[in-house]
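User: Sequence in, structure out. Go.
Assistant: Echoing your sequence, followed by the C-alpha cells.
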Amino acid sequence: MTPAVRATVLACLYFAGFGCLIPFLPLWLAKIHGFTGAEIGVVLAIAGFSRAAAGPLTAAWADGRSDRRAPLFLFTILLTAGFAVLRFTNGFVAVFALILLLDIAFWGLLPVVETTLLRLTRSGRPSYGLGRGLASAAFVAGTTIVGLLNDATHSFWPIWGFLLLVSAAMIAASAWMPREPATARAEVREPFGERLAHGFGMLRNPRFFLFIFAAGLIQASAAFLYTAGSLIWSNQQHFSGSTIALLWNIGTLAEVGFLIALAGWTTRFRPETLIVAGGVGAVVRWTALSLLPPLPVLVFLQLLHALSFAATFLGGMRFIQTLYGDDRTPTAQMIYMGLANAPTYAAAVLLSGPLYDRVGAPGYLAMTAVAGLGLVLAVLLRARAVEAATAA
C-alpha cells in the first residue's frame, strides 16, 4: 500500500482511540475509581501542564532521530504498557501517576500523527482532507462502539479494553509506516540543547506567538465539554450511553463533513480567517450549552463543532505549514501544543472540574470567556496578515 494509505490507517487507529478517550475517560475515572469532578479536573489538568515541558523536550529529541518513526514507537509503546497496567491500578495517587503518563503519550502522539498524515498524503492518495476526514470518522466509530458496549455489558470495562487494543494496534501500524531518513536535516547533527533552543526560538516570531495563543485558547475552551459534557448529559439530562455517543458523533460527523467536503473550498480563505470563524462558533456553542438545551437543539449545537474545532484546526495546520514547511512543522506543532494548547487546556480543565461540581451546566459560560479571548487574538492575527499582504 502507498505511504498515504499507511498514514491514513495510523491516523484512523489513533482517532478511534481518541473517540473513546475523550468522552469516556472521565466516566471511567468517576465510575470505576470513584473520582469527583474536581479530582478528574486535577488529574487531567496536571497532565496537561506537564505537556508544557514534555512537548518541547519531545520535539527536540525527535528532531535528532534519523528515522521519523521514532516518536511513533516511543508513544505507542508507552500507551500500550500504560493501559495494560491501568486495569490493575487502584488509589488516587497511583491512578493519577498513570493517567499523567498516558495523557502525555496520547497528546504527544497527536502532532506526530497529524504531520505524518499531512506530509505523506501530499504525494499520493488519499488526499489530506479525505485522510483526515476518515480519521475523524474513526473517532465516531470508536465512540459508537464503546458506547454500545458499555450499554450492552452494563459496565464501563469496554473503555479500558478498547484503548488497550487500539494502542497495541498502533505499535504495529508504526512499524508498517515507511522509514523516512532525516539525515539531510541540519537538526539531526545538532546537540540536543541546540535543537531545544531552536524550538523555543520559534516563539520569537510574532506571528507564530500570536497564533499559538489565539488557536490555543479557542481549542482549550472545549475543556468543559471534554471534562464534564458526558457527566452533564448522563447525570443532569439523564441520557443513555448510546445517546451520549450519538451527541459526540454528531459533532465529529460535522468535522468529517467539513474536512472532506469543504477543505478544498476553504483554501480561498486565509488560515487566520478560519481561526476567526472557529472562535465565533465556539462562543456561540458554549453559551448555548450552558442553558441545558433539549436534545434537538443539542444536535444543532454539536454541528458547530465544524467551526469551533475543524475550522480552527485546519486554519492552524495551514498556518504552521505555510510558516515553517515540512521539516519544521512537527516541531512547531509540538511547541504549539506544549507551550500554548496544553497549558491553556489544562488550566481550563482545572477550572472545569470544580465548576461542574458547583454549578453544573452554567460552567460552560467560563469557556465562552476563554473562547472570546481567543477570538480577539485571532482577529488581531488576521488583521496583521491583511496588513502585511497590503504592504507587500
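User: And one key feature?
Assistant: The two ends are 44 Å apart (CA to CA).
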